[in-house]
Write a structure and sequence with these properties.
2 copies of one chain form a homodimer.
Chain A (H helix, E strand, L loop, with lengths): L4 H9 L16 E3 L5 E11 L10 H18 L3 E11 L5 H18 L2 E9 L5 E11 L14 E5 L4 H9 L7 H12 L5 H6 L6 E4 L4 H12 L2 E5 L7 H4 L4 H7 L6 E5 L4 H11 L3 E8 L4 E4 L17
Parallel strand pairs in A: 3-4, 8-11
Antiparallel strand pairs in A: 2-5, 3-5, 6-9, 6-10, 7-9, 8-10
Helix pairs in contact in A: 2-3, 4-5
Amino acid sequence: MPEGEFEFIARRLRPLATAPGALNLVDDAALLDPSHGQQLVLAKDAMVAGVHFLEGDPPGQIAQKLLRVNLSDLAAMGAAPLGYLLALARPQNITDDWLAAFCAGLAADNAEFAIALLGGDTVSTPGPLTLSLTAIGEVPKGAALLRSGTKPGDDVWVSGTLGDAALGLKVLRGELEVPEDARAHLIERYRLPRPRLALGEALRGIASAAIDISDGLVADLGHILEASAVGAELRADQLPLSAAARDVPGARDSALAGGDDYELLFTAPDERRAEIAALARRLDLPLTRISEIRGGADLSILDAKGQAIEPASKGWQHF
Amino acid sequence: MPEGEFEFIARRLRPLATAPGALNLVDDAALLDPSHGQQLVLAKDAMVAGVHFLEGDPPGQIAQKLLRVNLSDLAAMGAAPLGYLLALARPQNITDDWLAAFCAGLAADNAEFAIALLGGDTVSTPGPLTLSLTAIGEVPKGAALLRSGTKPGDDVWVSGTLGDAALGLKVLRGELEVPEDARAHLIERYRLPRPRLALGEALRGIASAAIDISDGLVADLGHILEASAVGAELRADQLPLSAAARDVPGARDSALAGGDDYELLFTAPDERRAEIAALARRLDLPLTRISEIRGGADLSILDAKGQAIEPASKGWQHF
């Protein structure tokens, strides 16, 4: 017989709720004491089995991905994470062992990011496992990075490498064959995004706009351009690719339109280039200048010869 | 062709996001400025079609119930609501018109409770409609009502009437026939709970413990007893029943163990009786003394003759 809800909360969730405001998960809601002079930053993302992750993915990594995509939203705003609330809709076929492994993933990331579970809800569902997480962070008042705020002449930067996660998903679906070491790298990039929290915090006061790349570069750059009412020109051959992705067919399309990379895309005035280069060294994280903001409202994408191209897909609509 | 995600957000959700910190739903996360001296209170509940509401329920009322069960959690802590984040997993069979009516329900409650949508996520699902909402409120620092804190000798109080919602669900399921006016009342009590926010705020400094009745009186009183390490004796014939419920077979069992009433159950020292009676008059809301806290750790339930009884069900486990 599977654990009941209250036993699951007591055995598995309570150990994750180490913040005093979580009230040991005994109460109806959690308490949070915002620090003086800080604004709270709230992000909420949902994930459905078979849609946002694969049924066979390791449960701990599903938990970590759920948490990290939300932390990535905080990173994009320049916020430092404080904690999170979790809602879990459990189908009959999810075993206690599966849940234990799921919670172990959360425990690992609680330690990694110095955060704690604050509260939430567990329910049953006749449908697929459905997860939703609300992450709470804080940022000094007025310092949050937004999608709006960039101006013509600003540089467009991206952290890390692009397209790996979308290639990793293709590998997992059996649609792409790659060498073994590339395989491991691409799958990890799909399953275990790295929220760029340190970068986001460091970009406060430097970046003029920021977003995390969840829908794909073209779509997410489009979000910045729309919010800031500007345009840009992108050179597809100048996007940073990982060693694992570089020789894979379709890597350029994945870098342009593949989602799930959770790198930061940001803009900054050109006089900040030296600071940004220094930041890349300090964080040991490549930061690549990929474009420049200009007037108008269009995003053109050019190939190596300067010819306009259309990406195979413009990115991810969620329903 | 149904609206895409971005169109749905722009047409239906953005008009609900009237708080400045919602940033017009353009950014990855919302900003919130806590008031000085306040603690934030965070509640997150999930609901699944066919489990927590019926597929045929009016969409606007589903939205209102989702919001109100979370506001009820804030009420139980004595908090005033500020806003909320919404995650919506949409199956193919949910039409744009259904979503428009769902959002109209949120709009009505935004006005009713002076709150706004702050952010969230919309995804697709092959399973049933799955909703999760995170409500954010605030309470003066240190003033939150908790489940722990009651002592032997305290009175046990309940607001409103008990068992109506569980009877309303039976009516909707065709398991119970009642006169037409009772039918309307019981169904509304099931579909449209009234979060006791004014009562919760007024009970700060008066109540020694509080909870909202979502799992059923016996289960939720049990939560208070467990959190406070005390016992109580409950007289089943002294529970407040509505005129609609009074003559219905099974009304007493519904009052004891039926969930979904979202009334407040609270305890207070006996010297606060006059204040609480005055509060009931001011709020035009019946507050009934149903029991007294005592030592030990047991909850006994007695019938009109003082004989111990067992309720048909002890309440609601969520999975």
